[in-house]
Write a structure and sequence with these properties.
Layout (H helix, E strand, L loop, with lengths): L2 H7 L10 H28 L5 H10 L8 H72 L1
Helix pairs in contact: 2-4
């Protein structure tokens, strides 16, 4: 089953969800499903028409060479292996980007908290000054 069909079947919609934990779970599931499908395809290619240990050893030996009996399957296994490596690199880059974004969000939250405290302190100072101004007005009115 193609990955996008699997996502639709399981009701995964990462583009319209605002829940980042849900999006992260969906992306993790999607990545693992993609890797699982590619690994199973490699295993299937290796195990096709290989009924003895000797032939299997020969097949494994020929996987990364373009000559011999397993040349076509070898090329397909190589292609899938390259796809897996590229997917892993993209996944690592995505995780690094996510970590940088989460770090930036944490810093912004801390800055917002600091600004909120400063704002609260300023409001208290303004209230104190208003109280002093009102008391000066009252004392001036008594004279």
């Amino acid at each position: 089953m193609p990955v996008d069909m699997w996502m639709l079947y399981h009701g995964i919609d990462t583009f319209h969800s605002t829940d980042t934990a849900y999006q992260r779970e969906a992306l993790d599931a999607l990545f693992l499903l993609d890797m699982d499908m590619k690994v199973k395809a490699i295993i299937k290619l290796i195990n096709e028409d290989v009924d003895s240990f000797g032939r299997r050893a020969e097949m494994y030996q020929n996987i990364f060479s373009f000559g011999g009996k397993g040349a076509v399957k070898s090329q397909e296994v190589q292609r899938l292996t390259v796809e897996i490596n590229m997917a892993n690199e993209k996944w690592d880059a995505l995780m690094q980007s996510k970590m940088h974004q989460e770090s930036a969000i944490r810093e912004l939250k801390m800055e917002i908290g600091s600004l909120t405290e400063q704002n609260h302190s300023s409001e208290l100072l303004i209230q104190q000054l208003r109280g002093e101004i009102n008391s000066l007005r009252d004392s001036k009115g008594e004279l």
